[in-house]
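Complex 311.
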Amino acid sequence: MEESSLKGRDLLSIADLSAAELSAVLATAAKLKSETQQKIPHPILAGQTLALVFEKPSLRTRLSFDVGMFQLGGRAFYLAPQEVGLGKRETISDVARVISRMCSVIVARVFTHESLVELAKYSEVPVVNGLSDFEHPCQALADLLTIQERFGQLAGLKMAYIGDGNNMAHSLMLGAALSGMSISVISPPGFEPNEEVVSQARRLAGDKVTIKAVHNLEAGLAGADIIYTDVWASMGQEEETESRRQVFRPYQVNSRVVGLAKPDALVLHCLPAHRGDEITEEVLEGPQSAVFQQAENRLHAQKGLLVHLLG
Ligand code: CP
Ligand code: NVA
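Predicted structure with norvaline bound:
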């Protein structure tokens, strides 16, 4: 591969990628996935090291970066919240400069997006957003790979995201806009996506792409090829779980709601899922759901990204 325009860059938002860079990462991811399935080794990042700096729990993000670096010939090191104490035991700027002296890339999962911005400001190596309160770009990359595998392309499709206008909604809106995919974010009043993100997505989207934030399920789901949902209370909002349950109840992805989209619409969920809340068991485990293919694609999508950032 020629040197990527992404080499040495940060990925704090999915919109840090241009449309062409996003397609290039997905193409590399698809190639690495195929090689992995054929057991063809690809030690492209031999000797490179990745630090996982996490303030919140994780299964998929931690494991996929760890396994991904191993398969690429490098190594990942997990740094638990109590060890690093980001901004508490030590300033973020000191943490960034110390890790930069030992590792090739930092993946951070933080409570406030500003912590990532601060890490990136002081880091001499790329910083990747492994989830913040504002965006989850690595998940969106895996989601786009999953959609591309199913439909053969992204442009011209329509996604309906149902639920909280949260980090996932933001990255999906921006990722859809960059990919030529229309998206409706359907949320209860008071839980809409950030208005600046909606405007940014509209600016990135071409003429034929519509970016909507609506409250009405029927309007948002009409003609949807993909139905996406996420938890009603994100990490850090646990004390709001009960109050949110009341507000979000009409927005549960159940078989009636799935029936409002195109027949055979793809059902996605970033996981972890709360069966009986944002999605029913029947839909999550049903024939339209691709949630485990989507989870697996975290591995392949992020390997594609790492090769572009470090290769
Ligand atoms: N979807 C996702 O990011 O999962 P984890 O929180 O388990 O990493
Ligand atoms: N919105 C969720 C996504 C989890 C992967 C959260 O931030 O907890």
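The domain at 14-136+298-310 is CATH 3.40.50.1370 (Rossmann fold).
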